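Per your request, structure below.
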């Protein structure tokens, strides 16, 4: 190999090496921090909806085959504890199933507490986010995948909440002025 070819090869390799050395810095505001705002938005709207729906509507279900509004809120709280404890590598701190709770105040508090618990999961490092975990039987993925899954699950059920609220003549938080 002549000197010119060697210099061209090194010149091509250096930017790649420099790029790979910069990768950790590029990730400082990367994957985990990119999921946090999506999670925070769902957190705010789900919490506001749970607070705004009157207690008498917590037993409402649009059809016999689906959850009541209260069961939906309890389900979100249960799922958050389950997913975020796996992400954090901890034992699920929730005792029992909030989906069986019928009291509005208890459900709103359970939802807030589950979000408070999950907040820590959305603070993990980028390196930790790439570690593999088992979330459900037979499902494995990175902690980042589980964070995204949790946020997607929150949004899935916020869509349900919107429908329940609209059926009761209410405006959901995402459509309220000054959101």
């Amino acid at each position: 190999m002549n000197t010119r070819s060697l210099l061209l090869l090194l010149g091509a390799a250096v930017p790649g090496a420099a790029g790979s050395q910069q990768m950790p810095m590029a990730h400082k505001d990367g994957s985990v921090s990119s999921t946090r705002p999506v999670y925070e938005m769902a957190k705010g709207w789900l919490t506001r909806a749970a607070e705004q729906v009157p207690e008498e509507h917590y037993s409402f279900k649009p059809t016999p085959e689906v959850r009541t509004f209260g069961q939906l809120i309890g389900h979100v709280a249960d799922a958050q504890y389950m997913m975020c404890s796996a992400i954090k590598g901890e034992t699920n701190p929730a005792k029992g199933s909030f989906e069986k709770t019928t009291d509005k105040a208890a459900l709103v508090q359970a939802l807030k507490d589950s979000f408070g618990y999950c907040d820590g999961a959305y603070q993990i490092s980028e390196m930790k986010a790439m570690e593999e975990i088992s979330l459900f039987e037979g499902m494995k993925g990175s902690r980042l995948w589980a964070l995204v899954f949790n946020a997607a699950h929150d949004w899935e059920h916020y869509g349900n909440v919107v429908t329940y609220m609209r059926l009761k003549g209410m405006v959901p938080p995402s459509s309220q002025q000054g959101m």
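Helices lie at 3-26, 31-52, 69-88, 104-121, 126-129, 143-167.

Regards,
D.
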